[in-house]
Amino acid sequence: MVTLRQPAALCVVLCLCLCSVSGSYPKAQNVTWKSNNFKTFLTWEPEPSADYSYTVEYSVIGGNKQRNTHCIRSSAIRCDLTGSLSDLKANYTADVLSEPPQGAPSEPGEAVYSPSTRFCPYRDTNIGRPDFRLEASGDNRKITLHVVDPPTALFEGERQLNIRDIFADDLQYLVTYWKSKSTGKRVYKSKTSVIELTDLEKGKSYCFIVQAYIPSRTLDKQKGEESPIQCSADDNQSIFEVYSVGVIAAAFFLILLLIGIVIAIVVVCWKRRKNAQRNGREKVPQDV
Ligand SMILES: *[C@@H]1O[C@H](CO)[C@@H](O)[C@H](O)[C@H]1NC(C)=O
Ligand SMILES: *[C@@H]1O[C@H](CO)[C@@H](O)[C@H](O)[C@H]1NC(C)=O
């Protein structure tokens, strides 16, 4: 009986050992694309122990799997695929394989891997906040926004491409604007990067936010990050708009106070003088 049990136990132990060596590395989790202005990373978790590493394989959907030399048996938990996804309008997927550490021999059999979701650079990369300059016409009735198309991580030879180079006519800008100190917001869509707004009230200050807008994308990916707010100058502000009520009240009070002091001084002086005159008149007969 004993001799029968021992080989069975040995078999179980051997099997456990083999299983833990071949293909039982932890699977990558939370495999996610992170992409801004065409700078694209695949990220995942957790950090690997010294016992294993990760390799990334990517492909156009249905195409051959490829590897990026920087993401083979690496202990990093992200892979820069910016230069690898060269067909911007293609749909890509990637797998994160759990493999033996660098230098260790490969193992036969299926590697453990986690697949990513589908990613298309043209449709999915986030567009960062644009920068813009305000130019007001003489009477502030017309304001021109000069938007700088955000640069991307992509190059054509030496030249860095901006989002207009890539999206061309698909790129629009969304301008959200409102009269200073009012809440009513208006939105203007522009196909160009130089944007003229002409329906403004004369002499009023307006505030603007600009963001890229790509109507050909799905709804949740159409709008880029919002620029910081910029406001135009208000060239004929009344005194009540420039200073708060408190400041005006304080100034008014100060003026009243000054007038009061002046009146008090005048009255005191006048009384003294009158007294002096009376005393003088009273003295005169005494002297005589
Ligand atoms: C994956 O993401 C979830 C939710 O953000 C988090 O709770 C979990 O810890 C992550 N997994 C790993 C291995 O970090
Ligand atoms: C990529 O996928 C989207 C959505 O699944 C699809 O509409 C589009 O036609 C695909 N593009 C290509 C080039 O296969």
TrEMBL record:
Subcellular location: Membrane
UniProt key word Endoplasmic reticulum: no
One biological process term in Gene Ontology: blood coagulation
Sorted UniProt keywords: Blood coagulation, Disulfide bond, Glycoprotein, Hemostasis, Lipoprotein, Membrane, Palmitate, Signal, Transmembrane, Transmembrane helix
Annotated SUPFAM superfamilies: Fibronectin type III
GO terms assigned for molecular function: cytokine receptor activity
Domain spans labelled Fibronectin type-III: 11-103
Residue stretches spanning the membrane: 242-270
UniProt family annotation: Belongs to the tissue factor family.
Protein name in UniProt: Tissue factor
Native source organism of the sequence: Anabas testudineus
